């Protein structure tokens, strides 16, 4: 019943929210109501406040299903929460300028296809953070694939490690030598955190 309730909730969620779920224990016989059942879900949202709102709604679904059936229900996290990334365009711009020194360019945010999740978002909730990527192939390659794995071990993939280290080091040096740039990035980060809090 909880699983059905969450499926119904999906129909009314904003487009930036994703819920993925599987039943990990549904009983041992198809013609008997199990005395214990369990499911596992991923909740994803564009911002921390949106994620917390979804979590509260699912908590109420679990409570309601338990009340309707006379059962006991419980919702609990099984891993650390992965939070959204607070973007700091000035930081990206600084990194991009150093990348251009080596004949590469940083793709604009709108050119990135798809969304993922990373615990770098948790760090970005505390300090300005970037998570740049560097091309390791000559053409498009899907993430988490055999092609991506092979590209990582390719000559171009291995060279990208050296390039990335150089660009990150130069970006860090800029932050040390340009205190005004660092202050501007920190201010941009504070303002982004404030906007996120106002959305709660």
Which characteristics define this entry?
elongated; 8% strand; two-stranded antiparallel sheet; Alpha-Beta Plaits; 200 residues; mainly alpha
Helix proportion of residues, in percent? 40-55%
Rg of Cα set: 22 Å
Order of helices and strands: HEEHHHHHH
Task: Report mean pLDDT, rounded to a whole number.
Answer: 86
How many beta-strand segments? 2
Cα end-to-end separation: 29 Å
Commentary on this structure:
The protein is mainly alpha-helical. The protein has two domains: 68 residues, Alpha-Beta Plaits, CATH 3.30.70; 110 residues. The protein has seven helices and two strands, in the order H-E-E-H-H-H-H-H-H. Helix 1 packs antiparallel against helix 2 and helix 3 crosses helix 6. The longest helix has 23 residues.
Entry summary:
The chain has two domains: 2-69, Alpha-Beta Plaits; 89-198. The protein is 49% helix and 8% strand.
Layout: helices, strands, pairs:
Elements: H1 2-10, E1 18-25, E2 38-44, H2 48-69, H3 89-100, H4 120-124, H5 146-152, H6 155-177, H7 179-198
Antiparallel strand pairs: 1-2
Helix pairs in contact: 1-2, 3-6
